[in-house]
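Field: sequence (string)
Field: structure_tokens (string)

Example rows 1 and 2, in order.
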Amino acid sequence: MFRVPSLPILLLPVFSLAFASCAVSEPAPAPIGNGGGGARIQLSKAEASQIGRKIWQNECGGTVEGLTSWNKGEYFASLGIGHFIWYVKGNDGPFEESFPPLLRFLRDKGVKVPGWLLETPDCPWRTREEFVAARDTPRMRELRGFLQATIPVQTEFILHRLQRALPTMLASVPAGERRLVEQRFYAVGQTPTGVYALMDYINFKGEGTKASERYKGQGWGMLQVLQEMRGKPTGAAASREFAAAADRVLTRRVANAPKNESQWLPGWKNRARTYVP
């Protein structure tokens, strides 16, 4: 059995430009605020579980088999509810590798990680064909079981990434744009649906701050979605505008892509529509 800690409280570091804390707890959720004195994302355990299930559905179809995937046409494994990327040695790509950081997070949270995962910094399956052929091997079955057992903490990992995202995004834009980006971020996060949208998109397309994640100089991460939003909507309207902006940004990515990515766009648009309350 894998030992997974309970998920009553999640305490995260203080950031001067973002949240003072981010909690998953039993009480009713408090909204995100942008004041400096204790603003937080607070989700009940039920809300955190629901968001985790939605992300699992988005990435894996909600199946255990989908927790260990390697998509056709890609050169990396996609693992866990967030399809966290794991590169083969010597074949790193432009997208942020997220599976090794997940393993470190799990270990630091007290989860017992299979020893071979801690001793294997790179994906041990060198090609998709190798990965698919190994589907029913003891090691792959152990990996799926481990990922299934740690779904609540994987959700926590995504929430942790979101909590760290705002300072990174603000540091990458001109000073004159920071206030508007910050306001829109907090506006989207005022409702549980908005928190889900932020968590899902940060896991789905990242922060948008890496220079390598650009086509024709234009990114597709959360920062670009926040910049694409129109006006200063609040409440449910903020989630709707975030969804519309995500649709526009993803459409632009496909138009700018050096290779044909049009097969992904309908699914991406459907995903963005789940952000609408």
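Row 2 begins here:
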Amino acid sequence: MLNDLHIHTTYSDGAFTPDEIIEMAREKGIAYISITDHDTMGAYGHFREDLEEITIIPGVEVSTYYQGLELHILSYFHNPKDEALLALLARFKNDRIERYFKILKNLENLGILLPDEAPPKDSYGRAHIAKLLIEHGHVKNIKEAFGTFLDVDKIAYEKRFKIDTRDALKALRRAGGIPILAHPGEKLYNLHFEKLLRDLKIHGLLGLEVYHPSHRKELSNKLYAIARKNRLIISGGSDFHGQLDAKSPFINDKLGRYGLNEHLTQKLIGFHKKLQANTTQN
């Protein structure tokens, strides 16, 4: 199994708690994981930390926008107690909560009443509402929920707080993090990709997520070469969300199937130590 540095829990839109994720990783023999919930570090401090078999690298996935593009930025090794970063994430949370209930109100105005007896722990998102729509028989699946009600310009959609990618990179770097551009995929790869990376490097980008379920092997190979060429640290993970009562066992078997081998993991850790040393000297 590979070291999986892209995992979501019940603190955002994942199906499993942090402790359940850790147990799954332990059973699979995964040595390093990172919990990277969307726009929240709420999971940290809410799982067992007396672990000998698994090392948990502090992580988060921040939703950002740059020149009309939605870019997700992963960060590793930042200080989870950094006040400026926590303030930024609190703004995300407050906006998500407000937006969440606006969407529920929009659906209510359409005659769809969703009694939410189990609100999400930290990251109030459209995925949770999509699950409610399925549970109450209004749609058959996630795709239909978004295509009919929740996607941009659909009848229940509400805009959300947007942070400029450059501001997010600055905040993450100040918190001691290693910001990584997450899952660029084919679409972003075809949009003057290397120029985008060079622009973002100026503002603090340090790495690129090369290994991800949405990347075919050919694309991962190209991204690896680009990362090396542009001196970006390499990351990877399964983007695991999981699914309760999954019809296919493969849905919950993705953990550790995408990620970093031991060599690349140690390069990431070594890069972090070097950054720490430079910060201490300065």
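free_text_note (row 2): The radius of gyration is 19 Å.
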